[in-house]
Amino acid sequence: MHFQKITLAGVGLLGGSLGLAIKQRGLAKKVDGFVRRSTGIAECDKLGVVDHATRDPIRAVENADLIVLCTPLARMRDVLETMLPALKPGAIVTDVGSVKASVVQELEPLTAAAGGHFIGSHPMAGAEKMGVAAARADLFVNAVCVLTPTPRSPPEAVERVEELWRAVGGRPLRMTPDEHDDLVSRSSHLPHVVAAELANYVLSPAHPKEQATLCANGFRDTTRIASGSPEMWRDIALANRNNLARVLGVFIEDLQEFKLSLENADRKAIEEFFDKARQRRDAWSGHSASPSPE
Known about the structure:
By secondary structure, the chain is of the alpha/beta class. 50% of the residues lie in helices and 14% in strands.
């Protein structure tokens, strides 16, 4: 698989890592990056994540076979609209967004009207550190990369995007946008809310100053993802708000059941709660291929 030119719209952690992986594996003759600020151009040049970085969307997308939107969810449509006048006929547009239904619904018809093909995708990879300085070429190795084609998606375009993720080390998986958003609301979005609330509650200044001193590795591990970008997670939570609100309600109900077991000193129920969690996590961990932090 080889592209003449790939454009990365947004060169942060994901875009930068994708650029490094593409260049390291020789997947494109040229990799351009679209950035918002002049400092972004300097960073890209210093780190070598793309061949050329620019603030001009037309220049960035000119003659590109593939455009990967790596911007925050709330900016994807605006960025794509600035690029569409220069979109090459038959070009493929994909993204790395954590929510798919609203993105596909908005961007698929826009891209089609400009003569291109939009295929939604979501690599389940990331880290709490943001920005291009945190980029690394192996970020997508063993990461599940979800593709969300629709009945309007040309099979050859879907296969090209699938090949890209496989070529950078990922494990492509196809599903509908709605299926994706339902599943990640539990496995990705809910954990971020839980980690954020733990950090908010336990580290609140309302508690004694010694509280933070007693936060050890368990607390550090559990709350690691709370250090992610507040703006990014605001956009994700809002974009998937219906699913997230629903699963959050179920989660709260489960916690209330555990609280009742505590109040009743129900030893059997409490032990079963922890035992079931241990068994389920051990079974998942034993069958997972080095899941990437997301």
